[in-house]
Specification:
By secondary structure, this protein is of the alpha/beta class. Helices cover about 40% and strands about 20% of the residues. Helix 2 packs across helix 5 and helix 7 runs antiparallel to helix 14. Bound molecules: 2-acetamido-2-deoxy-1-O-phosphono-alpha-D-galactopyranose (NG1) and zinc ion.
């Protein structure tokens, strides 16, 4: 079917979704993100690409419209692959190409991709479309659907949903519902069903109290938590804050997971109650952060803390099953050094470090039977191999196996149902953390006692061209400019427990500098010294960095 004519595609583009921006944009770790007003044509073209991808994979493909934790006037789009994973990396270049060609080159580009992958152009494929609560999302979603229709695909509109819900729907559709029912009700039933089985009828346990203050970031996470409040009742008393009406301009503003993590501050709108457990989700509810205040001190429980808590609990339950499975944890270089030490030395769980970006973490986690992964910023989940699931089911169903081992296997099977394996899911992660704290009888203070974070500092340096910075060893060492890494090594050597690395951001036009050391002052100082070196050796613009 190569070299067919897709004139309607061009006509539609020219009349309804003309390309209005000259500058090229790049499909990055989080898909495309920009000011919402510039994205109409990009959405239309992602609708086209989704149909091509779906025909190639002979499966439903997802399109999520969101700019996550960005401010309300921004928006974005990402494609979701058949098993609910992020778009395969080798297709990112096609997404970039589709977004940047002229309207009159669209037809040719479609023919090019059809030819390269030998895509059958007859299947009436489903494209699962979801959007966050941004005021720009409805019209952008319409543009996506126009693209889907232009190539005779079938758009399935899920309306306003969280990013992880959309990933879940795609996985359900493509596994013939083995993963669950591809409906919102199916999602709530799966998660709350597992939660109820795991927690039983005891609502509190030891130091654990079933009360949680929840910051919905004035986004979709606030809308969807209401179903959980209803379905869980007093089992978990979720007190929700930051649920402004759509279009208030308050989305992610001074609240939400990204604000709390990056500012290390309590969000606005949540009452400060000493020692009480609080959590924040981000604008599309795929990131989660826990925190509390005590004696006017702010305590943050980030992705590293969640990863260690989850891994330690899974290890404990796994040991009780008597089944041999390998459990591993995946982090990025941004993970606090104290967490890495704790995992490797205390928990004795193998830990891997990969490049920034969820797709790298997810991919590496699949190497284990049970792979836990989290970015420090609170995005993460757990993936289980088929081998793990089969062995657990076998043990749970084998009446000749001792009762305690069978119960432990059942617990793990319920935990699998509670977890959204497709992608980090703030609400599912929250239910998991609550379940573990409940099982252990811990309050948030007890959880924090596992290890003490090393003081750290993240800085941004603006340079002429950030691509001059290249790295290796999961971004932990800088390759170019050649003179930079020896300078970093020399600076790090001056500090007790010092560690620092630099890399070009994938989402902003800046170079990021990370530093940690044994004291706050030293971490700050090391960060500034390294940032100055970056400025000096990598073509810094503006003033040299200061504390
Ligand atoms: P960049 O801008 O490439 O550092 C940021 C976050 C990532 C990830 C992506 C995508 C940090 C240091 N980096 O990437 O963890 O979340 O955005 O959203 O937080
Ligand atoms: Zn997000």
């Amino acid at each position: 079917m190569a070299n067919s004519s897709y004139r309607t595609v061009y006509a539609f583009a020219r009349e309804m979704h003309p390309k209005t921006v000259k500058e090229d944009i790049l499909y990055g770790t989080a898909g495309f993100r920009a000011k919402a007003s510039t994205l109409g044509y990009v959405m239309y073209r992602m609708g086209l690409l989704a149909v091509l991808r779906a025909r190639y994979k002979r499966a439903a493909i997802g399109v999520m419209i969101t700019a996550s934790h960005n401010p309300e006037p921004d928006n974005g789009v990402k494609l979701v692959d058949p098993m609910g994973e992020m778009l395969e990396q080798s297709w990112e270049k096609w997404a970039t190409k589709f977004a940047n060609v002229g309207d009159d080159q669209l037809e040719e580009t479609i023919n090019e991709i059809i030819k390269e992958y030998d895509i059958p152009m007859t299947d009436r494929v489903e494209i699962v479309v979801g959007k966050d609560t941004r005021p720009s999302s409805p019209s952008l979603s319409k543009s996506v659907m126009d693209g889907v229709l232009a190539l005779s695909g079938k758009p399935v509109d899920y309306g306003i949903v969280t990013t992880p819900q959309l990933h879940y729907f795609v996985a359900c559709k493509n596994t013939k519902r083995v993963y669950g029912e591809p409906t919102e009700e199916g999602y709530y039933a799966k998660l709350t069903g597992a939660f109820k089985k795991l927690r039983g009828e005891t609502y509190t346990n030891g130091k654990y109290r079933n009360r949680l203050l929840y910051d919905g970031a004035n986004g979709v996470g606030a809308k969807k938590i209401k179903y959980f409040q209803e379905l869980l009742g007093n089992r978990l008393k979720i007190e929700m804050f930051n649920d402004a009406i759509i279009g208030s301009g308050k989305l992610n503003h001074l609240c939400g997971a990204d604000h709390v993590k990056s500012q290390q501050k309590f969000p606005t709108g949540v009452p400060v109650e000493s020692g009480v457990r609080c959590c924040s989700v981000d604008g599309d509810a795929d990131r989660l952060i826990y925190y509390y205040m005590e004696e006017n001190n702010f305590h943050l429980m980030d992705g590293d803390r969640m990863a260690t808590l989850i891994a330690s609990y899974l290890k404990e339950v796994l040991e009780k099953t008597g089944i041999e499975l390998d459990l591993g944890l995946v982090q990025t270089a941004y993970a606090n050094g104290a967490s890495t030490d704790y995992i490797a030395k205390k928990l004795r769980v193998p830990v891997a470090c990969v490049s920034t970006g969820v797709k790298h973490l997810h991919h590496k986690a699949l190497d284990y039977d049970i792979g836990v992964y989290f970015e420090a910023n609170g995005h993460g989940t757990v993936v289980f191999s088929k081998n793990a699931k089969d062995k657990l089911k076998e043990t749970a169903n084998d009446s000749s196996v001792a009762g305690e081992r069978r119960t432990a296997a059942e617990t793990l099977l319920n935990l699998i149902d509670l977890i959204n394996e497709t992608v980090g899911d703030a609400i599912s992660d929250m239910l998991l953390i609550e379940t573990i704290l409940h099982a252990k009888g811990w309050d948030i203070q007890e959880w924090e006692r596992a290890y003490t974070d090393l003081p750290n500092r993240l800085m941004k340096v603006t340079v002429e061209d950030r691509t001059v910075i290249t790295t290796t060893d999961a971004e932990r060492r800088c390759v170019t400019p050649e003179s930079l890494q020896p300078e970093i090594d020399a600076l790090v050597a001056k500090y007790k427990r010092g560690r620092s690395f630099v890399r070009a951001s994938g989402t902003e036009d800046i170079v990021r500098v990370y530093a940690e050391a044994s004291t706050r002052e030293e971490a700050d100082q090391l960060a500034v010294e390294v940032a100055k070196k970056v400025h000096e050796l990598a073509g810094g613009t503006g003033n040299p960095p200061e504390i």
